[in-house]
Amino acid sequence: MSYQALVEDADRLVGANEKWTGIAAEAVARMRLQNRFRTGLDIARHTAAIMRKDMAAYDLDPSQYTQSLGCWHGFIGQQKVIALKKHFGSTERRYLYLSGWMVAALRSEFGPLPDQSMHEKTSVPALIEELYTFLRQADARELGMIFREIDRAREAGDVARARQLQQSVDTYQTHVIPVIADIDAGFGNAEATYLLAKKMIEAGACALQIENQVSDEKQCGHQDGKVTVPHEDFVAKIRACRYAFLELGVDDGIIVARTDSLGAGLTKQIAFSANEGDIADQYNSFLDCEEVGEGERRNGEVLITRGSKVLRPKRLRSNLYQFREGTGADRCVLDCINALQNGADLLWIETEKPHIDQIAGMVDRVRKVIPNAKLVYNNSPSFNWTLNFRQQVFDAWKMSGKDVSGFDRARLMSEEYDATQLAIEADEKIRTFQRDAALRAGIFHHLITLPTYHTAALSTDNLAKEYFGEQGMLGYVANVQRKEIRQGIACVKHQNMAGSDIGDDHKEYFAGEAALKASGEHNTMNQFAA
Fold it and tell me: What is the pTM of this model?
């Protein structure tokens, strides 16, 4: 409904209740506009529709890829979206990412934890709810500022300006954007996955990212010791997520199926195979086995048959089974195809380096079976981007016969190479990586998992060095506040950002002229009006 239609609707409602004294219809309309999303499910339905539209657009034009940054606090997510609107005028094709790594490291009551699903699983939906609380508050704050401008225009008799401002309310773009939320390996069995998925969706998540690792052996995707599960187990969890979406009425919710098989050399169990060539038999075919002859069987060992052969899978003292080396890419392709054929919407292939040809090689094979297969890709801070891309350029130069004698491949991270043509070419490849990978490797969504973890540490280090050093207070003023003012950072007016002006509006609604407001002439925030 338009601004005016909402005012008229509220006027009819208030007019029909004569005891509602002092209730202003326009104030009701404004509060409703500032609270467009009443529940997390409203948010999940709204953002799922956005993602589905973006996925369809990418299928038609792969230059229309999407992006996100991982955010570990509602304020960080809020400031990111405010920045998007300020710099680009739109949030189109931009999302939030909720990283399980950052929840473990920063949001657990146990304190900092490794990314091994040891944190309280309730902290994940709690962060989703927090993110959307801050994004909804950003809407309320920005709309409140527009409402104040409308009032000033009316007081000045500027009807055209007031009408223009009302139109901006009618076309207002919300800060509420999709979040892709990490549910790890499901925090238990399929029932546990379903229960957590419901909580995450109720908090507002429209997209759940789930990985094919064993829940109780889960590792960060960029660490060693990863253990995968048979496809049947993983599909049960995909179904659990889908049932959660459907039960809650988010019919177009998105499931991102992540495979860690490229770096996982172990499995906890041998898959149950009913027929030769079925998905379980394919999973088992990657096991590192040796043929067992008559009389060579040992006490307590596990043997499998393949055709007429009896095989002994390599079994570790940990009771885990080992895959053959070099099978990771083949297992990833099989994982991806099977996940998409069983209800997943998007894929995630965790790789050990950002290499477009490597990613494209696997995606091309998946697309031979499922032509519109699309990836979410982790532009991870666990990669040394500088070293990786300089080595890629070094290798390409060497293969083409170009002289690379002036470079030490192992030391290409060194600052001494920064001004070289090799480093410049590598930086250009980093700059265009997302665009190029979207076009060549089927990557629909690019995210950085932990960027705000690193930026918080870097900015705090710089501030501490300056403030506690010779610069003293100038270390804060010159490097923080002055830049905030000149760059138009919203939170330089931190009282306004925290909701002080919204509170003043409510005081006026509730108490009229008797309201004791905080935004008078003695409010020091007025120093930032210029």
Answer: 0.93
